């Protein structure tokens, strides 16, 4: 009787530890942080962040969710699926986004105005723009704590040679969007997409919108 | 020692402790209770919390004193093999228990209801508030979405902004709604808390009395960035507010024409990807 009880207690304890470890690993699994290339020093320090958005991340970059919409970041000459970016504090960050996805439209049209970038503008395919048509928004790059709001215009439905899934080629239909913003002090700032772009999920805000490494992440400012 | 003596002793201990502790709790803890004095409603909450704490103190003391008294006096004596007889069907105890708890519960319910009358105590009252303060009010719409708040000012051309700034000593009529899931608008220092439900206009009133910054948080678990759904609002002078709203109207003039006409709720498109 005593041995059986001891066996049950030990077995239960081992099972509890294993479940705890599994949950801990799952809950703390973060995408790898990618450092943006920097240049200059002090107040003149700048960083360059190159991103792309794709309608489906593809099996090469996500075997678990190949059909999920995603941001990708350029790191050492290749595209990486990460949404945690290391940036210097109080620096100008030049962002280039290759926007390959089609439009979904904003639930709140207010977010179709560019805010918080240098000059409160962005450049789409060489043209300076302050607002876009909210219905043509594909994604946003928004850092609420820094007041940075950038809507990303989607590729038209009729565009030829659209990219099905990542990695996408610059020869395929896309918009090139550039803008510059200044980081704040040291800290972790979250950023996110505000377009309900997660196909087939509740209000378009499930799946990749609620999983780090796809449509939202952090700016680790150091 | 007789049962009556135990009762007397307990009553004396309890009344003495309550007479000392209750005023101390009310006078020392009361002024530092949340949420502070940022608005008439928040000051009311401090009063309410003080009343609740003052009421709870004697109840807490009764339980603790009885527990300690019982442990000291009624513990099992060495050599005893049987427990004492169970107390059953004591009408006196039952009557006292029912009367005291009923009086306490009804008193607090009455107090709470009375406190709501007038302005709703900063709580969301739904689209048809039962308790609306009189006089001129400034309407501010709070729009929640995954995962940020934005604010519209219908009296100022329906301008929408990501910042909440309100004038001091002015009654604010918050209209709280959501574009997607359930959120909750909590302006802590103002004592305002109102659920933000999609397709619902939830109205809450507040009269800020102090120029200060206040914390805004979502208080309804709403997804991965719920913990980051916070902001800082500002209560400013009426002149500073006029200057600020003018600047906001200019800043957001490019997007204002693209906004839907001001409405108490919105059922936004598109939902094609999400639906």
Write down the overall geometry of chain B: elongated
Q: What CATH architecture of chain A would you give? A: Sandwich
Report the oligomer.
Answer: heterodimer
Category by helix and strand content of chain A? mainly beta
- Spans of chain B with pLDDT under 50 lasting ≥5 residues? none
CATH superfamily of the largest domain in chain B: Cupredoxins -  blue copper proteins
Write down how many β-strands of chain A occur, each being a DSSP E stretch of 2 or more residues.
14
Query: Treating each run of at least 4 consecutive H or I residues as one helix, how many helices of chain B?
Result: 4
Q: What's the CATH architecture of the largest domain in chain B? A: Sandwich
What is the count of DSSP helices of chain A, taking H or I runs of 4+ residues?
1
Using only CA atoms, what is the Rg of chain A?
21 Å
CATH names the topology of the largest domain in chain B as: Immunoglobulin-like
Query: In total, how many beta strands of chain B?
Result: 10
Total domains of chain B: 2
Task: Give the SSE order of chain B as H and E letters.
Answer: HHHEEEEEEEEEEH
How large, in whole angstroms, is the Cα Rg of chain B? 26 Å
List keywords for this structure.
heterodimer; A: 222 residues; mainly beta; Immunoglobulin-like; eight-stranded mixed sheet; four-stranded mixed sheet; 33% strand; B: 275 residues; alpha+beta; 2 domains; five-stranded mixed sheet; 4 helices; 10 strands; elongated
Protein described:
The complex is a heterodimer of chains A (222) and B (275). Chain A has 222 residues and is mainly beta. Chain A has a single domain, classed as Immunoglobulin-like (Sandwich). Chain A is 12% helix and 33% strand. Chain A has 1 helix and 14 strands; from the N terminus they run H-E-E-E-E-E-E-E-E-E-E-E-E-E-E. Chain A has one helix spanning 2-28, and strands at 34-35, 38-39, 46-54, 70-75, 78-80, 84-87, 92-99, 122-124, 127-129, 137-143, 148-153, 175-182, 187-192, 216-221. In chain A, strands 2, 3, 4, 5, 7, 8, 9 and 12 form an 8-stranded mixed sheet that branches. Chain B is of the alpha+beta class and 275 residues long. Helices cover 37% and strands 21% of the residues of chain B. Chain B has 4 helices and 10 strands, in the order H-H-H-E-E-E-E-E-E-E-E-E-E-H. In chain B, the strands form 2 sheets. Chain B has a 5-stranded mixed sheet, with no helix packed on it. A 5-stranded mixed sheet of chain B has the order 4-10-9-6-7, with helices on one face. In chain B, strand 6 (183-187) and strand 7 (192-196) form a beta hairpin. In chain B, helix 1 runs antiparallel to helix 2 (40-73). In chain B, 27% of the residues are buried. Chain A binds chain B through residues 104-105, 107-110, 112-113, 115, 120, 130-131, 133-135, 142, 144-145, 147, 149, 190, 192, 194, 196-205, 209-212, 216, and chain B through 143, 145-148, 150, 160, 162, 179-181, 223-225, 228, 231, 251-252, 254-255, 258-260, 268-275.
């Amino acid at each position: 009787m005593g041995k059986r009880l001891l066996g049950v207690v030990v077995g239960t304890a081992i099972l509890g530890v294993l479940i705890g470890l599994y949950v801990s690993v799952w809950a703390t699994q973060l995408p790898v942080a990618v450092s943006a290339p920097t240049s200059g020093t002090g107040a003149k320090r700048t960083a360059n962040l190159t991103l792309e958005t794709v309608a489906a991340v593809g099996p090469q970059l996500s075997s678990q969710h190949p059909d999920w919409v995603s941001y990708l970041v350029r790191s050492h000459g290749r595209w990486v699926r990460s949404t945690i970016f290391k940036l210097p504090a109080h620096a100008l960050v030049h962002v280039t986004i290759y926007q390959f996805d089609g439009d979904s439209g904003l639930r709140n049209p207010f977010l179709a105005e560019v805010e918080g970038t240098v000059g409160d503008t962005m450049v789409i395919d060489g043209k300076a723009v302050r607002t876009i048509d909210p219905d043509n928004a594909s994604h946003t790059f928004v850092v609420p704590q820094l007041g940075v709001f950038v809507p990303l215009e989607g590729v038209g439905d009729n565009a030829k040679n659209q990219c099905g899934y990542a990695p996408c080629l610059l020869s395929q239909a896309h918009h090139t969007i550039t803008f510059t913003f200044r980081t704040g002090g040291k800290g972790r700032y979250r950023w996110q997409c505000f377009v309900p772009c997660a196909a087939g999920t509740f209000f378009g805000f499930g799946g990749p919108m609620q999983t780090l490494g796809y449509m939202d992440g952090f700016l680790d400012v150091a | 020692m007789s049962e009556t003596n135990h009762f007397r002793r307990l009553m004396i201990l309890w009344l003495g402790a309550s007479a000392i502790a209750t005023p101390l709790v009310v006078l020392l803890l009361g002024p530092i209770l949340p949420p502070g004095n940022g608005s008439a409603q928040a000051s009311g909450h401090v009063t309410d919390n003080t009343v609740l704490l003052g009421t709870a103190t004697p109840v807490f003391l009764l339980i603790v004193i009885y527990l300690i008294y019982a442990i000291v006096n009624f513990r099992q004596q060495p050599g005893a093999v049987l427990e004492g007889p169970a107390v059953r069907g004591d009408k006196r105890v039952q009557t006292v228990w029912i009367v005291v708890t009923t009086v306490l519960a009804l008193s607090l319910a009455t107090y709470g209801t009375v406190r709501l009358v007038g302005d709703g105590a900063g709580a969301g009252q739904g689209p048809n508030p039962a308790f609306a303060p009189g006089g001129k009010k400034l309407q501010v719409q709070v729009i929640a979405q995954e995962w940020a708040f934005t604010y519209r000012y219908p009296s100022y051309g329906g301008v929408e902004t990501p910042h909440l700034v309100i004038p001091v000593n002015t009654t604010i009529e918050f209209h709280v709604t959501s574009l997607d899931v359930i959120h909750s608008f909590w302006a802590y220092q103002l004592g305002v808390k109102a659920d933000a439900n999609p397709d619902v206009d939830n109205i809450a009133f507040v009269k800020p009395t102090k120029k200060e910054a206040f914390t805004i948080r979502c208080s309804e678990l709403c997804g991965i960035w719920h913990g980051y759904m916070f902001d800082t609002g500002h209560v400013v002078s009426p002149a500073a507010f006029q200057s600020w709203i003018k600047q906001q109207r200019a800043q957001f003039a490019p997007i204002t024409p693209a906004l839907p006409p001001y409405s108490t709720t919105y059922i936004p498109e598109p939902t094609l990807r999400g639906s």
